[in-house]
Specification:
By secondary structure, the chain is mainly alpha-helical. The protein has three domains: about 30 residues, no CATH class; about 100 residues, no CATH class; about 90 residues, no CATH class. The chain has twelve helices and four strands. Helix 8 crosses helix 9. The longest helix is centred in the last third of the chain and has 21 residues. The mean pLDDT is about 90. Bound molecules: iron/sulfur cluster (2 copies). The site of one iron/sulfur cluster (SF4) has 15 residues, from helix 2 and helix 4. One iron/sulfur cluster (SF4) binds next to helix 3, helix 6 and helix 7.
Amino acid sequence: MPIHEKSLIRSEDLITHEELVLDGVDVSGHWSTFIENRAVTDYNEAMEDEISALPGGEFIHRCWQCGSCTNACTVNAINPDFNPRFWIYLIRTGMEEELLRDKDIIWQCVSCNKCTYACPRDVNPEGVMKATAHWLELKGHTEKKPSMIFDEEFTEQIVTTGKIEDGRVLRRFFAKTGQPLFQEWLVALVRSLVFRLPIGLLTKMGLATLFHPRTRGWSRSRAAMEEYIAERETENRKALGLESKS
Ligand code: SF4
Ligand code: SF4
């Protein structure tokens, strides 16, 4: 039997009668609060298989609903609606419509992996959150979220050059997400670094911004990575029935 915290009951599902007398007892107001009955008929029986076929979702079947992941979760501490245990329950029972009600917060996972360390069943809840966000996007339920855009930018730079140049990743991420380059926190960070880092390192970082250095002999690694990524993307789409299986 799954755990259902009180916070999971949506206010629109609660019914309260302003005036109600039952067997001569006045139960008006909050005394007559009921949860509305509902019948779920549109199960997506393929949902668990689809999400477990995506990277990170492989071990979702191991979950026994203990709630340790949600208890440990960094984002849940700030927003109780962010509930990995509950979403895993919905995925495993095929309740797609219910899951879609939270589609705009699932991507907010910050990949801290506290849930991963707390999980007694090695489910890798952090991976499940990533796989679920990816599934939502592939299925067209959500547009590409900022965390996904950041991941893509980061990966693209590694694949192309074999190096990471933080300033360039940030610049391109801000441009793609319509954010200004000069943000208060970033200006403060740069100011504090300028006075702490050795001048030689700062010069190297500045030159890297201009010339985008590459790792020597990187072309074969790049080709192998591109081939692998293309294979995985095709596999992911096939697992979701988005391309005919060959
Ligand atoms: S990795 Fe994501 S789901 Fe797990 S504890 Fe951190 S924020 Fe929560
Ligand atoms: S901690 Fe692991 S087993 Fe427990 S509810 Fe979360 S994912 Fe499931």
